[in-house]
Amino acid sequence: MTKTYDRAYFDKWYRHGGIGHAARLARKVQLAVATAEYHLERPIRSVLDIGCGEGAWRAPLLKLRPKVSYLGFDSSDYAIARHGRRRNLRFARFADFEHLRPCPPADLLVCSDVLHYLDARELDRGLPALAELCGGVAFIEAFARGDGAEGDEHDFKQRSAAFYRERLRALGLRPLGSHCWLSPALVPHATSLELPD
Fold first, then answer.
1. What range(s) does the Methyltransferase type domain occupy (predicted)?
2. What range defines the domain where residue 182 resides?
3. Contact (Cβ atoms closer than 8 angstroms) between residue 130 and residue 110
4. What DSSP state is assigned to residue 195?
5. pLDDT digits 0-9 by tens, 40-57
6. Which of 96, 104, 119, 196 is most deeply packed, by most CB within 10 A?
C-alpha cells in the first residue's frame, strides 16, 4: 500500500489526537529557536523547513519572531496545493536536494519527522543539503530503532541511531542534543563542552 500525504493523513497524525499537539510543537520551536540564537548570538532571520508537510512550524515561529523569513518544501501535492501560497511552501522530494539550493544557508534549518521514512538511497542523495543549507542550527528530528516513538509506523525504517549520527557527522554537523545539530560553519566557534565527544 502506497502512503499518501493527503488531508486524511494530516488529520489523523497532526490534528485529531495524533502527534501534532500545539503545545508539543510550540516547545520544539522554542527549543530550536533558542538554540540557534544562542549559537548565532542574535535573533534568527531565516528558517528553511525541509519536509515541512503543511508548514506547521510557520505559525509558532512567526509568533516568536514575527519578521522571520520562512520557506518550506514538501513532497505532498495536497499540502502544497492547499497551503503553498499562503505559507510559502514549495514542492520538492528529499532527493531533489541533491541539486536544489533554493536559498542562502538559513539561520535555522528544520527537518522534522522525515529521515526515518526515507529509503537509504533517497536519504543519501538529499542529506548533504542539510549541512550546506544550514548557517546556524539544524533541528533534525529523527527516530531510531528502539526509540518507542509514537506515530505513523508505515514505511518506518528500523535503523540504528549510529546510522544517522555517522551520516550527519560526516557532513560536518555536530550534535548539540535534543535533535539539534550545529552547522559546520559554527563548529569552530563552539567551546569544547558545548559539543559532546
1. 48-133
2. 18-187
3. no
4. S
5. 999 999 999 999 999 999
6. 96
